Amino acid sequence: MAKAPHTPLHIIGGGLAGSEAAWQAAHRGVPVILYEMRPLRGTPAHQTEGLAELVCSNSFRSDDAQNNAVGVLHAEMRLCNSLILRTADTNKVPAGGALAVDRDAFSQAVQSALEAHPLITIAREEMTHLPQEGSEPVIIATGPLTSPSLSRAIGAMTGEDELAFFDAIAPIVHKDTINFDIAWFQSRYDKVGPEGDGADYINCPLSREQYETFIDDLTTGEKTTFKDWEEGTPYFDGCLPIEVMAERGFETLRFGPMKPVGLTNVHAPDTKPYAIVQLRQDNKLGTLYNMVGFQTKLKHGAQTRIFRKIPGLENAAFARLGGLHRNTFLNSPKLLDDRLRLRSAPHLTFAGQMTGVEGYVESAAIGLLAGLFCASDISDIPLTPPPPATAMGALLEHITGGADARTFQPMNINFGLFPPIDPPKMMHGKRLRGKEKGRARKQALAARALHDMAAWIHAVPLQPPGQHRRDHSQLAAR
Question: Under a CB-based contact definition with an 8 Å cutoff, are residues 347 and 137 in contact?
Answer without folding.
Answer: yes
